[in-house]
Task: structure prediction
Amino acid sequence: MLLEIKDLRVKAEDKEILKGLNLSVNAGEVHAVMGPNGSGKSTLARVLAGHPGYEVTGGSITFDGKDLLELEPEERACEGVFMAFQYPVEIAGINNTYFLKAAVNAVRKYHGKSDLDAVEFMQLLRAKAKLLEMDQAMLGRSVNEGFSGGEKKRNEIFQMAMLEPRLGVLDETDSGLDIDALKIVSNGVNALRTPDRAMIVVTHYQRLLNYIVPDVVHVLTGGRIVRSGGRELALELEEKGYGWIEAETAGARG
Amino acid sequence: MSTSTETIEQLATREYKYGFETEIETDQFAPGLDEDVVRRLSATKGEPEWLLEFRLKAFRVWQKMTAPTWHNLKIEPIDYQAISYYSAPKKKPELKSLDEVDPEVRRTFEKLGIPIEEQKALAGVAVDAVFDSVSVATTFREKLAELGIIFCSFSEAVKEHPDLVRQYLGSVVPYTDNFFASLNSAVFSDGSFIYLPRGVRCPMELSTYFRINAKNTGQFERTLIVADEGASVSYLEGCTAPMRDENQLHAAVVELVALDGSTIKYSTIQNWYPGDANGKGGIYNFVTKRGKAMANAKITWTQVETGSAITWKYPSCILVGDNSIGEFYSVATTNNWQQADTGTKMIHLGKNTRSTIVSKGISAGFGQNTYRGEVRVGKNAHNARNYSQCDSLLIGDRCGAHTFPYLEIKNTSAKVEHEASTSKIGEDQIFYCRQRGIPTEDAVNMIVSGFCKEVFRELPMEFAVEAQKLLSISLEGSVG
Ligand SMILES: Nc1ncnc2c1ncn2[C@@H]1O[C@H](COP(=O)(O)OP(=O)(O)OP(=O)(O)O)[C@@H](O)[C@H]1O
Ligand SMILES: [Mg+2]
Result:
């Protein structure tokens, strides 16, 4: 098991957001997480990444045999947890390429490897830029600064391709992408699907799942995963919305 | 407070790296200032009558002045009678090589990592080290002398080149200029003097390291740089100071004279003791720096200000000649309880004069950072151009940034552009970097150097590296 979340409880500013969430992900799998607005999907992603704004009040997260909650955000990143942000952050004055070099080398350093030299780095950069059809000009611009919504999302996946994580957590990467960009980004994600890597894909739209075909689809509502199923669950949700599941869950809880 | 703010705070609490004192016997005046002290000071230094007159006139003007209050600084009243106005190493060595320098002094320099060693000098830096108020070591003077370049301490210049000093001293910053400049004119201790003859380009960077040392000794450096027609020079000034409890006063005057077609580039790294994390101690730094550019001349001020409890400093350019150029590139950081009120004045008098101002203020902790800049275009300054850019970066939410641009335009053909921005190193940015594997401290350094890059670019290579290091030291522990 690559990732095992057990009975996870999370608070932010005295509000309980995740209320006993369970989720297991094997290497090689892609899991889709769907759910209504405000149900806690981004919270789950941020807590996996170690965002300091959340307090974990219960439960455990085991990643590749390690207690993830014990690790600092940068350590989690170096261990291979990557999060594509729902709202990527702009950093003025830092060139995208420079930023990536710092990130790639920070991860290498963590694993006791020496920095990539300029030539090796540029080769890697070019290969990945090609995969995501990144515009050269964007690589030289400040991190996300002045990028369009869709460009930011594409840049996130480009960064993931550069960093080659073990677990990719994609928070609504599809929103804001036009149809062509959606295909390109999905192809990029699919190219990263390997037997030793897993993805958690947060989305509102089953359309994305036509391109990135998930192994499992989960429904997160009320701070818990209340239903899991195959691809067809996403189609059902698209047709019927979340109300019926919420009603059933409430009924089941009695 | 969120966890990451705490981390930022912790980073900011790193202690001043250069806080140590040197034990050296000093010979100093008892505290106090009156006409007699001025006379005694001048006599001790064996100065000619005209210089004593200059000092006395300045002193009499100063006595009638009051310290300025227009700045955005909170300053405890300074007791000028509690300060000693002269201090010198007891044995005043006559040195041919660095081996002869007092070993205690040398160790201090080494601890500071100052490149006084000859190897470094050979690499292109001629070093004139000022220890306290008197120069104790000068290198590569002969080599410069072959080109007719004079590079010596101010006191030596008074003795050996009195006509040059007399001609230019006070010609850019008159002894009546302002409270601190007048005080300096009355009691200045020592500093550097540079003269470049007509058409001579100085083949190396000239550098001086100042250091405040003896207790309660006000430091009043006086620097004068004259570039004759078509000459050019790049001068570096860098400093660090030992840790002290009492506030120490520093009031320097720097005058630059750029004659027709000449270029003077003056770069500073200021890293004096900023006081401790509770705002105790630290240097008070009141500096008057000004250059006069004649026709086709160019003056560039570049400064990286990381130290001092209080910084009051406005390196300025008077663009007298047609087609002259003035530039000001500044990075000023305030962390903990530091306060800085700094900026520039660009005074356009000649036709087609151009000026550029790039100011980057970084505030962390409880630091208060004020940019104060004035652009004045005289009525004969046809086609004057100014571009100003003032950016502020805030780290944490208890610090402040303030911008006061002043404009006075008397010629309608002038074009003046002003851009300003304030940004904050947000927790979101730090988290984003950390999520990509980059630790907090590295993320802050990266964001800060990105913010400052337009200024660092103006510094000579080795200086840029040093500046970057200093900046990260001074901001360590400031982010979250
Ligand atoms: N740091 C925080 N402080 C306070 N409340 C928060 C914080 N983060 C999230 N919340 C609240 O927790 C709930 C879940 O937010 P979250 O962003 O995880 O939802 P989501 O499922 O990603 O929603 P969407 O589909 O709209 O992106 C919301 O009510 C939100 O306002
Ligand atoms: Mg969300």
